[in-house]
Design brief:
The complex is a heterodimer of chains A (647) and B (312).
Chain A (H helix, E strand, L loop, with lengths): L1 H9 L1 H71 L5 H13 L5 E6 L10 E8 L2 E6 L11 H9 L3 E2 L3 E6 L5 E14 L5 E9 L1 H7 L10 E5 L5 E3 L24 H8 L4 E7 L2 E10 L4 E8 H4 L1 H47 L15 H47 L13 E8 L7 E8 L2 E9 L3 H19 L5 H13 L8 E9 L5 E6 L5 E4 L5 E2 L19 E3 L5 E6 L1 H4 L10 H10 L6 H16 L8 E8 L4
Helix pairs in contact in A: 2-3, 2-8, 8-9, 9-10, 10-11
Chain B lengths: L2 H13 L6 E6 L9 H8 L2 H4 L2 E5 L8 H7 L4 E4 L1 H9 L4 E6 L6 E5 L12 E5 L5 H9 L5 E5 L3 H5 L5 E5 L3 H7 L9 E3 L11 E5 H6 L1 H20 L1 H14 L6 H14 L14 H13 L9 H4 L2
Parallel strand pairs in B: 1-2, 1-3, 6-7, 6-8
Antiparallel strand pairs in B: 3-10, 4-10, 5-8, 5-9
Helix pairs in contact in B: 2-10, 2-11, 6-13, 11-12
The chains are: A alpha+beta (647), B alpha/beta (312).
C-alpha cells in the first residue's frame, strides 16, 4: 500500500491516469445505475405479468378438475336421494361415478350408524386402482369411517367441503401399515327434516393433482405450489415435502421465518407476491387463492431466473467497462509517459548541468507544443548559462586579482601611518595612541605625527569619498604633511601649502578635511588649524570633555589659494586631546541611528584619567557595540594624546 | 387374510420361542412417532436382544380403541394412558402396570382465535376416538363446562377447517401440528392441564394380569431393556431422532423431522418427575388417586381404582 502511495505520489503519468480513470468510472457507474434501474424495473414488470398469466392458467386447469369432481358429486347425490329405499343400488352408483370420471380414485356413499336397519356400518365404496374398479362395503370395526375427516368434516360444517390431505389407513398381508394420501370432496346428505344422514365423498389423489402442474415452469427452476387451509403442500416440486410438511414447518423452531409471512397471506386467501429466501436463495412467491376451496396457489421463481439474463448482461457490461477502464488507464499512461520522455531527459540533463557539466548536449526535438518550447528554452538557457559562467570566471579572476591588489594596497596604506606605540618612548610626558580602520580594503582616512625637537606635529584627516581614489588622495596628503611638518612651519601654513598642492590638477575634485596641530611638549602650547574637520574633544583633568572651538576653514584641496587661520591653546599639559574622523560620530546601527557626539562625550567622561590606549580601545568597543551587525559605512580613525601635567 | 385371523396367528407365534429368544409383542397406542422412541432405541440398539427377547413393535389402526386392542389379544404388552388403564380395570379387564414412563400430563385444550377454552359455551371440542380423553372430559365436567365432545380419529383437519371450536391436543404431537398449520401461538387460547391442578401421568406399559402372571420373567426383561432404551434416548437425541425417522418412513407416516424432533424433546421432558426432576419410571400414588377421584366424579369409573389395583 505504501509502495502504491509512493508510486502515485512520484509518478505523474500514474497520477493523471488514475484521475482520468476514476472520472470515467464515476460517469460509467452513474450511467449503469440508471440503465440498471430502468431495465430491472422493466424485467420485473414483465416477470409479474408472466407469473400472473401462469397462475391464472394453472388456476383454470385446477378449477376445471375440481369442478368436474364437484359436478360428479352433485350427480351422485341426486341419485342417492332417489334411491334411498334401495341401498344395494348405491354400490353401482359409486362404480358409475368412477367410470364417468377417470380423475377420481374413490367414491363413497356412507351413512350414519344404523341409518339402515341393523346396519352399524354402511359405506358403499368403489376404488379405481390403475383402471381396475373394485366395489365393496368398506365400513367395519377396523374401519370406523364415521370418525374420519372425510365423513366428519361435511357433517360438522353442514356443507360440501374439500378435506385436507389425509391418510386412508389399510393393512396389507404382512401386517405393515399402508397409507395412501387422499383428498376428498364430501357433500353432506340430509333427510327430509334436514338432519344429517351421511355423505357422498369423492377421492382424488393429491399426487395426481400435483402432476397436473408439474410441467408448469415459466423459468428453469420455478414451480407451482398449492397449499391447503392448514398450509399443507398439496402441490410442490419437491415430492418429499408433499403432504408431510406445511409452509410453516421450517419455522416451527422459530429459526427460519422466510415463508411464514407468505404462508399467512396465502391462508388469508390474499393475492400478491413476496420476496423470500428459500434454501439460501432469493426467491419470489406470486400467489392467489384457488376458487372457494380455501386453498392457495403460488408460483415460486428464483430471482436468478427472473433477473438471470439481465444480471448476466450487466456483469458482461461491467466486465467490458472494467476492461475499457484498464485500457484507458494504460493508453493514457503510455501517452503521458511518451510525452514526458523529453521532460525526463531534460530533468536528467538539468541534474547534470547542476552538477557542473555545462557542456552536456540537450536533446533536440521538433515538437511544436509546450514541451518543444520548453526544450528549446532549456537549450537556450544552457547556452546562456555557459557564456554567463565563462564571463563569471573572467570576472571572478579579475575580482580576485583586484582583491589581491587591494589587500596589498591595504597593507601598504596601513604601513603608511605610524603604528608603533608608544611612538616616542623617550618622551615620558607624551602618551599617544591612534587607530585607523578602513570601511573597505583601503580607506580615505589618515593620521600622522612626527617629533621635531620638542614639538609634536600631528594631523588627522578624512578624504572625500571612499576606496582606492580616496586612499590615493590620503597617501598624497599624508606624504605632503610629513614633508611640510619637517619644515617646522605652523599648522595654518601647513594647511595653506597642502591646500595649494592638493588643489592643483585636482580634476577629480577630491578634498580632505583635516585637523593639523603642533604641540610643544615642554610648554604645552598647542597651535592648530582645523580645515573643515570634526572638532577634537579636550579633557582637562577630571572635567567633562569639551569640543574645541574651531575656525571654519575650508577643507584642503577645494580651492587653490585659500588662506587658513590657525588657533592656539596655551597649555595642554595635564590635558587629553581626542581627535577622530566622522566615521565615529556618524557610525550607524541597523536602525540608522548615529553614534553621535553625545555618546562620544559620554564615553570620554568615564575615561578622564585613562591612558591614550585605553581611551582609543574603549571608544572602539563602544562604537562596535552601537553598530552591532550593521555594515561599517565609513572609515574610522581615532587619535588620542595626553600630555603629562607640569611637575 | 382377515385381521382377526392374523391376530390368532401372531398370538400363537408370540408364544413360541424363536432361536433361543422369547417372542414378545408390544403394541403402542398410536402410529409410529417419537412418542415411542425409547422402545425403538431398545430394539435398534439390541437392548431387547441382550435380554433374550425378540420384540415386535406393532402399531394399531387409527380408529381402534384400546379396549379393542386388549380384548382382541395378540400382544403381550400395551402402552396406554393411566386413565385408560384405570377404565379397563374398572370394566373388569385386569391390567397391570409394568413400566410407567410419563410423569406429567401432556394434555392441552387449544381453542380457535385465541379464546379462553374455559370461557367457551356449548362449544364443539374434539376428543380422540382412540381414547386418551377421559381426564379432560372429567375436568370439563368438574368445571361445569358444557362442551359438546366430537369423537374423531384425528383432530387436526377438523380444527383447521373450522368445523370445531376447540380441540384436545397433546403438547408433544397435535399442539406442534397445529402450530405447523400456521396457528399463531395462542395466549389465552391454550389451556394446559398440568398447570391447573390436573397433572396426571399418562403413558405407561401394561399387561393383562393373566399374561403377566404367565410370563413375568419376560415382562421384567422387557421393562429393563425399555428403560435402558429411554435413558439412552435422553442421552443421544440426534441418534434417537435418526432411529425414529427410520420407523416413521417405514410406516409411511405423514410427518417430518422437525415435528419428530420437537415431539421427542417434549416426551422426554414429560418423563421427568415434577418433584425430583428425575426419570423415575413409577406410578405416583397422588396422581392415581386424583385421576380416580376425577373419573368417579365424571361417571367413567364405578369404583375407585387404587395404585395397588394397577401394580402387579
Amino acid at each position: 500500500m505504501r509502495k502504491l502511495q509512493e508510486i502515485f505520489r512520484t509518478s505523474f503519468p500514474v497520477r493523471v491516469s488514475v484521475w482520468v480513470v476514476l472520472t470515467a468510472a464515476f460517469i460509467f457507474l452513474a450511467a449503469q445505475l440508471y440503465v440498471s434501474y430502468v431495465s430491472r424495473k422493466s424485467v420485473w414488470n414483465e416477470a409479474v405479468q408472466r407469473a400472473t398469466q401462469v397462475l391464472e392458467n394453472s388456476e383454470l386447469r385446477l378449477t376445471r378438475i375440481l369442478d368436474d369432481v364437484e359436478q360428479t358429486a352433485d350427480n351422485v347425490e341426486w341419485l342417492v336421494y332417489r334411491h334411498l329405499d334401495s341401498p344395494d343400488t348405491l354400490f353401482e352408483y359409486t362404480r358409475n361415478a368412477l367410470q364417468g370420471n377417470s380423475d377420481l380414485i374413490g367414491c363413497a356413499i356412507a351413512f350414519e350408524p344404523y341409518y339402515f336397519e341393523n346396519q352399524e356400518y354402511f359405506s358403499a365404496y368403489s376404488s379405481n386402482t390403475d383402471g381396475v374398479i373394485e366395489t365393496s362395503q368398506e365400513g367395519d370395526e377396523d374401519y370406523q369411517y364415521f370418525y374420519l375427516d372425510w365423513y366428519l368434516m361435511p357433517k360438522l360444517l353442514n356443507q360440501p367441503c374439500w378435506t385436507e390431505p389425509y391418510c386412508d389407513w389399510d393393512y396389507d398381508d404382512d401386517y405393515s401399515l399402508q397409507t395412501d394420501m387422499l383428498i376428498s370432496y364430501s357433500k353432506p346428505l340430509t333427510d327430509a327434516n334436514g338432519d344429517f344422514i351421511g355423505v357422498v365423498s369423492l377421492d382424488v389423489s393429491p399426487k395426481w393433482l400435483s402432476e397436473q402442474l408439474s410441467s408448469v415452469k415459466p423459468y428453469p427452476h420455478s414451480g407451482c405450489v398449492l397449499i391447503s387451509r392448514g398450509g399443507t403442500f398439496l402441490i410442490h416440486p419437491d415430492s418429499e415435502k408433499l403432504f408431510y410438511e406445511t409452509i410453516f414447518t421450517r419455522n416451527l423452531k422459530g429459526d427460519d421465518p422466510s415463508l411464514e409471512y407468505v404462508g399467512h397471506d396465502m391462508q388469508d386467501l390474499k393475492e400478491g407476491f413476496q420476496e423470500v429466501r428459500v434454501n439460501g436463495e432469493d426467491t419470489y412467491a406470486f400467489y392467489k387463492p384457488l376458487k372457494d376451496t380455501g386453498w392457495s396457489l403460488a408460483l415460486i421463481c428464483l430471482e436468478k431466473d427472473i433477473f438471470g439474463a439481465f444480471d448476466r448482461l450487466r456483469i458482461i457490461a461491467s466486465l467490458l467497462a472494467l476492461l475499457g477502464l484498464l485500457l484507458l488507464f494504460f493508453s493514457n499512461f503510455k501517452v503521458i509517459e511518451r510525452t514526458m520522455i523529453p521532460l525526463k531527459e531534460l530533468a536528467i540533463e538539468a541534474g547534470n548541468i547542476a552538477e557542473g557539466d555545462f557542456d552536456r548536449p540537450i536533446p533536440q526535438t521538433d515538437r511544436e507544443d509546450e514541451i518543444g518550447t520548453l526544450s528549446r528554452s532549456f537549450a537556450h538557457m544552457q547556452s546562456s548559462l555557459v557564456s554567463y559562467i565563462d564571463e563569471l570566471k573572467v570576472t571572478t579572476a579579475k575580482k580576485e586579482r583586484i582583491e589581491g591588489e587591494l589587500r596589498i594596497a591595504h597593507d601598504i596604506q596601513m604601513g603608511m601611518v605610524p603604528n608603533v606605540f608608544p611612538p616616542f618612548p623617550e618622551r615620558k610626558e607624551l602618551d599617544l595612541h591612534a587607530l585607523m580602520a578602513p570601511a573597505r580594503e583601503v580607506g580615505g582616512d589618515l593620521y600622522d605625527y612626527l617629533l621635531l625637537g620638542d614639538k609634536l606635529f600631528f594631523c588627522i584627516g578624512d578624504v572625500s569619498g571612499k576606496g582606492i581614489p580616496a586612499s590615493m588622495f590620503m597617501a598624497t596628503t599624508r606624504s605632503m604633511f610629513r614633508v611640510m611638518g619637517k619644515q617646522g612651519i605652523p599648522p595654518s601654513e601647513i594647511a595653506r601649502r597642502l591646500n595649494d598642492t592638493l588643489s592643483e590638477n585636482n580634476e577629480s575634485m577630491m578634498f580632505v578635511t583635516s585637523f593639523i596641530g603642533v604641540l610643544d611638549l615642554v610648554t604645552g602650547r598647542l597651535e592648530y588649524c582645523n580645515c573643515g574637520h570634526n572638532p577634537p574633544a579636550l579633557m582637562s583633568g577630571g572635567s567633562a570633555p569639551v569640543f574645541l572651538d574651531c575656525v571654519p576653514n575650508t577643507p584642503l584641496g577645494v580651492l587653490n589659494g585659500c588662506e587658513y587661520e590657525g588657533q592656539v591653546l596655551d597649555d595642554l599639559r595635564g590635558c587629553m586631546l581626542f581627535l577622530y574622523t566622522d566615521g565615529l560620530n556618524e557610525a550607524e546601527n541597523v536602525d540608522h541611528v548615529e553614534f553621535g557626539m553625545d555618546r562620544i562625550s559620554s564615553v570620554l567622561s568615564g575615561l578622564s584619567t585613562a591612558n591614550a590606549l585605553t581611551v582609543v580601545e574603549s571608544m572602539q568597543r563602544a562604537v562596535a557595540s552601537h553598530v552591532g551587525k550593521a555594515e561599517p559605512s565609513d572609515d574610522l580613525t581615532m587619535l588620542c594624546l595626553r600630555l603629562k601635567a607640569k611637575a | 387374510m382377515g385381521f382377526k385371523h392374523l391376530i390368532i396367528v401372531f398370538a400363537l407365534a408370540a408364544a413360541i420361542p424363536t432361536g433361543g429368544q422369547t417372542k414378545f409383542v408390544f403394541s403402542p397406542q398410536w402410529m409410529a412417532q417419537a412418542q415411542f422412541a425409547g422402545y425403538y432405541v431398545a430394539k435398534e440398539k439390541g437392548f431387547y436382544d441382550e435380554e433374550g427377547l425378540d420384540v415386535e413393535i406393532r402399531h394399531p389402526f387409527a380408529t381402534q380403541t384400546l379396549e379393542d386392542r386388549v380384548r382382541s389379544g395378540g400382544s403381550q404388552a400395551y402402552s396406554m394412558f393411566l386413565s385408560e388403564a384405570m377404565e379397563l380395570v374398572d370394566k373388569g379387564v385386569p391390567v397391570v402396570n409394568i413400566l410407567q414412563t410419563s410423569m406429567n400430563s401432556s394434555m392441552v385444550i387449544v381453542s380457535r382465535y385465541g379464546a379462553d377454552p374455559l370461557g367457551l359455551h356449548n362449544a364443539k371440542v374434539i376428543t380422540w376416538r382412540a381414547g386418551f380423553g377421559q381426564v379432560p372430559m372429567c375436568m370439563a365436567s368438574r368445571e361445569h363446562l358444557d362442551y359438546k365432545w366430537i369423537t374423531a380419529s384425528s383432530s387436526l383437519n377438523l380444527f383447521v377447517a373450522g368445523a370445531v371450536d376447540a380441540t384436545l391436543a397433546t403438547s408433544y404431537n397435535e399442539y406442534y401440528q397445529l402450530l405447523q398449520t400456521g396457528l399463531v401461538t395462542p395466549g389465552k387460547g391454550i389451556y394446559r392441564f398440568s398447570e391447573h391442578g390436573y397433572n396426571i401421568q399418562e403413558d405407561g406399559v401394561y399387561m393383562t394380569a393373566a399374561a403377566y402372571k404367565k410370563d413375568r420373567d419376560s415382562a421384567e426383561r422387557f421393562v429393563r431393556a425399555s428403560r435402558r432404551g429411554w435413558e439412552w434416548a435422553a442421552e443421544h437425541l440426534d441418534e434417537t431422532l435418526e432411529i425414529v425417522m427410520k420407523y416413521v418412513k417405514e410406516f409411511r407416516i405423514p410427518t417430518n423431522r422437525i415435528l419428530q424432533q420437537l415431539m421427542l424433546e417434549e416426551v422426554l421432558r414429560l418423563q421427568l418427575d415434577p418433584d425430583s426432576g428425575e426419570r423415575e419410571f413409577r406410578l405416583r400414588r397422588d396422581m392415581v388417586s386424583q385421576a380416580s377421584s376425577l373419573m368417579l366424579e365424571g361417571g367413567i369409573l364405578k369404583d375407585e381404582v387404587t395404585v395397588e389395583k394397577l401394580l402387579p
